Amino acid sequence: MTTSSIKRRRSPHDARASNDGDGLENDNDNNSSTRSSRSRSSSGSSSSALPNNSISISSNMSKRDSEEDTWASKGYSYINPFVHRIEIDSHIEVAKIYVLTVLLLPIRVVGCILSLLSAWMFACIGLYGISMEELQAKPLSGWRRHMQYWTARAMRMVYTSGSFLYIEMKGTPASAKEAPILVVAPHSSYVDSILVVSGHPPSIVAKRETADIPLLGRIINYAQPIYVQREDPNSRQNTIRHIVDRARSSDDWPQVVIFSEGTCTNRTALIKFKPGAFYPGVPVQPVLLRYPNKYDTFTWTWDGPGVLRLLWLTMTQFYNRCEIEYLPVYTPSPAEVADANLYANNVREVMAKALGVPTSDYSFEDVIVMSRAREMKIPFPGDIVEIERTLDTLDLLDSQRDMELCEMYLKLTNTDKLDIITFAELLQVDLKNPNLHKLFALLDHRRKGTVSLKSFLLCSLFCKLKNSDVITFLRALIKLYSESSQQIDRESFTRLLRHGGDKLNEKKAQALFFALDTANVGHVSFDMFAQYTEKQPSYKFLYHKSEHIRRTKANLIKATPTAN
């Protein structure tokens, strides 16, 4: 389109309005206004005030759009395993929570503390006279092994005090000789550690820092964990070697428990398994966790209630249930022994089938990408991975169309309410392409039948440049906020730097502007900003590439839609 004005057309989309809460603040420009739909923080919600009448529960974010020829209307949706909501809209239930907060919660807290102290005492007795080196060198035996059992019993009382009165065991637990490794899924909560205390305690894989946690550190040490040294560049290889050594050892080591998903999900699908548990090539026993309760008050995901709120809601239920199911031991084939990823995928398929849920191409690394997007104030951070995959299917990741639209952005009008027809013309994509409708649906969080061009450009440029340093990303966004990179006024400068991450808040951005505008002319250049910050140690974060979220296009596996 060569015109500088975008004519609005009647959208074919239904105007069903709702917001899933994954949006993010956008600012108003002179010629466009993108509405703010700021999501509530997944981690910050723990410190918020107690709710009034409702407390949100929806562990699945399904995408929506028109009743006509759109992606969602074809009967497909995608599962986002990192989003969780709790919704308690019954006045009786809400009243019960408040009453039990006063009458039952204090008793439960005291019970948890006393049980934890008992477990710590047993652990201290069991660890008396043994060094950390000895603890890692050979398995405990004799009276120390028996004391482990009593430590686990005391920890079980922590969960009992916290409302988990019923644990149902299904299947037959294998011995350490039959299956040296327990592969547990889905991993959805801090409560999942209930598996470790429900029987004879197995070992775990834990961060080295956990050994220094008051009370819990001694208890974790007593379980003879395999510690991960994050500051050690060889940590991954060393951890795998320790797992292999224990799995193949003739000594009586306890089984090693591994949550192969590597992060918490909402249990709607099994995400990619990390291959660590499968490198040894030994038989594993899959273990399933279920929580068949009326309300899911313990799922702790990237976007959802914080841990304190979850603890409060969990401990103000009369009781909660947990099911632990031991599936038959999975013995790998020669091909699986040679390929840990194949082994992991096949075990995941078995577990997903037993759970009755699909598998997902999401992984722990995707959580890092979404967290990065949220930090950089990108719209819809919870959907950014799906947006990236859709851009890839449309060949827009390799296209320069988004950069061209950035150049002309401030010359266009009505950019905050693009219908599907105008959106297709701007992107130069066939209107009948189903992936275009999918992208439109992902960006149309309010189900208004319109999307914001700025939101699209921010998402597209983030997906392209997420592995670049911050300064490169900010340079690409200049034309969204200023006509020229040589004359950026204070308001535009502040808006631009908002996408530099949490370390560049509005106060710091304005201070930077005044530090650069020494002539008091009311504007600065981006080059001045880059030259100034490059010399300042406090701004080195602007020049660090995000190695931890680096993914190549070859690793962008297309998400498989699931039928509604």
Number of helical stretches of at least 4 residues? 20
Helical/strand content category: alpha/beta
Contiguous uncertain segments of 5+ residues: 1-76, 552-564
Radius of gyration: 26 Å
Got a strand count? 11
* Tertiary shape: elongated
The first-to-last residue Cα distance is 37 Å
Helicity level: 25-40%
Strand arrangement, major sheet: 2-8-7-3-6-4-5
Largest sheet: 7 strands, mixed
Question: Any overview of this molecule?
Answer:
This is Phospholipid/glycerol acyltransferase domain-containing protein. One of its GO terms (biological process) is phospholipid biosynthetic process. Keywords: Acyltransferase, Lipid biosynthesis, Lipid metabolism, Membrane, Phospholipid biosynthesis, Phospholipid metabolism, Transferase, Transmembrane, Transmembrane helix. This protein is α/β, with parallel strands linked by helices and 564 residues long. It has a domain at 96-361. It is 39% helix and 8% strand. Helix 12 (384-393) runs antiparallel to helix 15 (434-443), helix 13 packs across helix 17 (470-481) and helix 18 (490-497) crosses helix 19. Mean pLDDT is 82; it is low at 1-76 and 552-564.
